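Shape matters. Shown next:

___
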Amino acid sequence: MHVQIVLFDGFDPLDVIAPFEVLAAGSDAVQGELIVELVSAQGPRPVRSGTRGLVLTATSRLDPTKPGYVLVPGASGPTVGDPDEGVETIPVLLARFGETEAVTLVREALRNPEVTVATVCGGSLALAMAGLITARHAVTHVQGMEVLAATGVHAVPARVVDDGDLVSAGGVTSGLDLGLHILEREYGPRIAHAVETYFEYERRGTVWRNTGRQPVAV
């Protein structure tokens, strides 16, 4: 099984590294059955993040036909500023993602029954702004929840939202929770617990799914 983590110009480094490390450790725990790689829509290239110019290298092109997961991170940058004055705010970076070939490839991945698309932080907002997840259940960073809902997505205020072939996680550190959820979902709780113990990290919150009884009041 493959997990392809998609790099794009202005990506948030922790959105990438947190799930990458968790899943890499999970790969070790299942003797390499899980292949984790950094990809881009353009193919192998150095990709500059939105944080202090940190660069990570995509080693291959995003392939929506590979069974497994396609993981889209959010962006890093200022939250306020005038784009007309050249300020590349997070919304600008996420909208720019929607103008790249990545959108076509992620759309193909969403149509592939052997692929689950996952997001961290603003990754779900990038897909929503591109019209890819309308009427789906998802979460993003707390600061983007109203915008997410405005795109026609059912915004759920949970740490991780599992909507079948779309799994999303909230703010940047939730990439750890997303990685562990993927491990448990695919390989069971013992693998996820082993990695959780190794990382000395305990997952937060209940994974939200659109199943079960509706609460009357809490």
